[in-house]
Predict the 3D structure of the following.
Amino acid sequence: MRTDDFDFALPPDLIAQIPAPERDHSRLLVLDRASGRLDHRHFPQLLDYLHPGDVLVLNDSRVIPARLRGRNLRSSGKFEILLLEENSPNDWWAMLRPGKRAAPGAKIEILDSSGRPSSVAAEVIETNAAGHRRLHFSGTKNILTDLNALGEVPLPPYITRPATRPEDRDRYQTVFARADGSVAAPTAGLHFTPQFLRKIHQYGVTICFVTLHVGPGTFAPVKVDDLAGHVMHEERYEVSDETARAINDAAPGAKIIAVGTTTLRVLESVARDHEGRIVAGAGRTRIFIYPPFQFKIVDGLLTNFHLPRSTLLMLVSAFAAPEETRGRDLILKAYEEAIARRYRFFSYGDAMLIA
């Protein structure tokens, strides 16, 4: 299939710039894969599509305040820094803008959240093939523990309001986030409240977690015409013994529902490597899911609405019709109706259940 096959026109005013007043006040578009039927619901009605014995799997990665501001100690030129991945304490891969000024050896003074100089500095150690910079931080025991004072919430580029708001620290984070490491939220989980999760558990649905640290590659455009030539970004994941048991021991007929494309990518990556079973452990995945694709473990997907021509739109198209290519048409038809009914799109937008 081709990248152009996954294009659609989205009115800019449907890109959600702020979250709903309450987490579970979003709308829910339900696509029945077998019939193609669409139902327009509200998020708490997700419970109508769950059954006792089902397994709901969520991504518990926590978004870190990964965007830093800095100043070149020699030229006073300004830098924007986006931390990507920790190699060891105070040793990180990062994206820097402007990159041309961030040659190895450059030393950067880190500014605090008010724009004042801090005691923390960074030195550019090396550059990789992707143009990312390896930074060594000094003036701190561990930059990760200072990010709340120094960093900003790394909102995605399509949220174009002038600045982050104090509430973004809470709302661009799931209520069950645990493991620090993401620079973008696993947004399908943003709709859940602790109360609703308790209600789901009391209904007899097993709730468990995987961890996949979401990188900026989730927003990266597909730059090739033929999807077979696209190389997916790599992300770190971890599956616990408890989660592996919950999924493998689910009763016959019970459904495994992935909350978010990140959760689905973890489960399908592990299942592909272990003959359809989930095995506990840590790893990295570059899995690129697009039509046609054979799914081995996931029966339902809760997700948000995705960007045109994105790998996430390709994934949900594959899930809408496993092992076929018609899922693209099902999803684009659903998106057309969502646009007509003015659903809110992307990270702070509404939800979609594909079941």
In short: The CA atoms of residues 290 and 322 lie 10 Å apart. The mean pLDDT is 96. The longest strand covers residues 78-88. The radius of gyration is 21 Å.
